[in-house]
Amino acid sequence: MVSPKFLSIVPRMTRLTRLFFALFLLLPFSSRGDAPAPYQSPSVPVEQRVTDLLGRMTLDEKITLLSGSGYMTTHSIDRLGIPAFLTSDGPMGVRCFGPSTAYPDGVALAATWDAAQAHAAGVANGRDARARGVNILLAPGMNLYRAPLCGRNFEYYGEDPLVAGTIASAFIQGVQSQGVAATAKHFAGNEEEYARNKLNTVVDERTLRELYLKPFAMAVKAGVWCVMDSYNPLNGVHSTENDWLNNVYLKGELGFQGVVMSDWWACHDLIGMTNGGLDLEMPDNKLYNAKLLMPLLENGTLDMARIDDKVRRQLRMAFALGWFDRPQLIPSIPKDDPTSAAVALQGARESVVLLKNDGGLLPLDPAKVRNIVLVGHNADPAVTGGGGSGFVTPFHQVSVLQGLASAVGPGVKIARVPWNEKETAIPAQSAAQVRAADAVIVCVGFHDETSHMASPTRPGSEGEGADRPYTLPWGEADLIKSTAALNPRTVVILNAGGSVATAGWVSRVPAMLDAFYPGQDGGTAVAEILLGKTNPSGKLPFTWEKRWEDCPAYGNYPTARTPNANIYKEGVFAGYRGFDAKGVEPLFPFGFGLSYTTFDFSNAAATLDGSGNVQVTATIRNSGSRAGTDVVQVYIEPPQADVPRPVRELKAFTRIALAPGESKPVTLSIAKSDLAYWDPGTKAWVVTPGAYAARVGDSSRNLPLKTGFRIGN
After folding, report:
1. Which of 80, 85, 127, 236 has minimal CB crowding within 10 Å?
2. Is 16 exposed, middle or buried (0-12, 13-18, 19+ CB in 10 A)?
């Protein structure tokens, strides 16, 4: 602290001396030899550090922190030692600073139904971020799978809020364990890419709370530091200006203490976003700048307390994650990290879903299958991810062709029929080769070997910026049919973020795998599963309809035929909830996935504790001849309520690995609050008293066990 005696001599200083003295006072305390300020000491509690630093900032400096200073960075304030924070796109890896590990996509991670794998993926992404000095990872994407057409379904975690929230929360905690902030996005109602900047999402409060906001609530409970507002208006108000969404719900009800940032260039109105809860405008200061803000603060249109709160949130995050106290860059972590590569490969192994295996065609036996032919665009080069900000350029990648060639012995011949964009069938000169093969692998789906945004003019692509067709890219359905006609031992491998039209070909092929976008080592994982070195254990995180018209969102989802309609008329009856309510049979149900072994369920029981929390127990047995992993799923059927409710809803799940013949008891806990529905009349969560049924199995349509319990009277 400067003494009064020293200050008394200031008037006698020369003008130049006074200038140097003023500059000296503006230097950070640690640069002047004084004792460190409270905010500079890691031993001081975070909130005290925040308050101390906030009190030292000028208004200009506070405004500076409200916006980005470039495409992927925020501003620094050197006078106070406030560093710039580096951000990176992140749903499938840390993509913005050169090649990086390309992980399986979000829907693939959800297909593992494995919170431990999600946490490992988060840790690996956090390490990749630290290897590049990144502070904020713009992941995970947490919008729900409402319809198969959404161009970014591949980034998200499926249709069910419990699966999405569980996987996202584990990923978030993994990322943040490495001193990197995760970002829950896109908040909220951004379940489509069609006209995403202007199309109004109309959805009632009950549906929002029970489905689309629930994963975000779970992420806040898990401690996420950033939430990214979406492009779209929600119920008539852009998310970046939505007071109810950002202030009342997120910061108020959920108690979110972190930073609400905009998606890139998603800001429209300065007063609206200032009062509506937006803390950080990215990537620049088109609206959050001194020229526009100062007059509004001076005339009282805007409250200075709102500015302070926005800055406080940013500082709180930075202090909590240690960004003031050590370098964010860890040079000793290799950018091409073998640890990350191992996590990516394991995620691919766990995610692939075996959808069909008629006659036990799979796994292929190398002792009997000596001649394998691959056809289709996606056989080679590798298809690792969808397009847009989720695309990662890997250091290395393995296609299905490469994976099989490496996995089989020298006595097995691997050949490929070249893909021709102009042909829709096996060319005549290759027909004999396909007919003579011991197995034919048809690799189809969407593909994008670049980071380009998706576009209706590129119908083979799937990614950010546009929705995609329900049908496979041009010619691929005919390719499957022509292959199956030549050889009954045909296996289809699909790359897509969701379901596709299958009418006309799915009944003609005995085996089918959904590989989603499996990341850099997807070809290795797929080859291991085809050859039985890995037993498939993935489960669909969405319902696969027999036709697009069966999807509960059909008719309500925005398309070129209904360009102005985005009303969630299906309400809470989205996904499997809608199929169950209408008695519609899906092609493949939610939670479904085959194995090379079989599983039996027995001994279901349900008990309540004194608070009304439920424990459901059951026994699962591997009744086959191979080691395998299944996902035990518990669905609850509620008593009749004052509003229509789903027939049953997923309330708990866990992965179980079993040796042949092995049995394990399983106990899954369900909080009483998770049995509640949102009552629009009273605007409160309500647990209906009465008799509940608990159904146990391994998909929404395979629930062989039933037990029950009673709540209240």
Report:
1. 236
2. exposed
Contacts 24+ apart (CB under 8 A), 505-510: 505/477, 505/480, 505/481, 506/356, 506/587, 508/480, 508/481, 508/484, 509/356, 509/442, 509/480, 509/484, 510/356, 510/357, 510/358, 510/359, 510/361
Superfamily of domain 46-320: Glycoside hydrolase, family 3, N-terminal domain (3.20.20.300)
Kindly report the CATH number that applies to the domain delimited by 599-711: 2.60.40.10
Q: How does pLDDT run across 357-415, given as a tens digit for each residue?
A: 999 999 999 899 999 999 999 999 999 999 999 999 999 999 999 999 999 988 999 99
Sign of CA dihedral 567, 573, 576, 581: negative
* pLDDT cut 90: percent of the chain above it: 89
Beta bridge partners of 634: 652, 696
Identify each DSSP E strand in 543-648 by its residue range. 599-608, 614-622, 628-637
- Residue of 708, 710, 568, 581 whose CA lies nearest to 644: 581
Each domain of the chain, given as residue ranges in start order, spans 1-35, 46-320, 352-542, 599-711
Classify 673 in phi/psi space as left (phi over 0), alpha (psi -120 to 50) or beta. alpha
Q: Is residue 156 within 8 Å of residue 190, measured between CB atoms? A: no
CATH class of 352-542: alpha beta
Is residue 254 exposed (0-12), middle (13-18) or buried (19+ Cβ within 10 Å)?
middle
Active site residues: 263
CA–CA gap between residue 625 and residue 666 (Å, rounded) = 21
pLDDT band at 489 (very low <50, low <70, confident <90, very high): very high
Report whether pLDDT(31) > 50. no
Residue 34: the pLDDT is 73
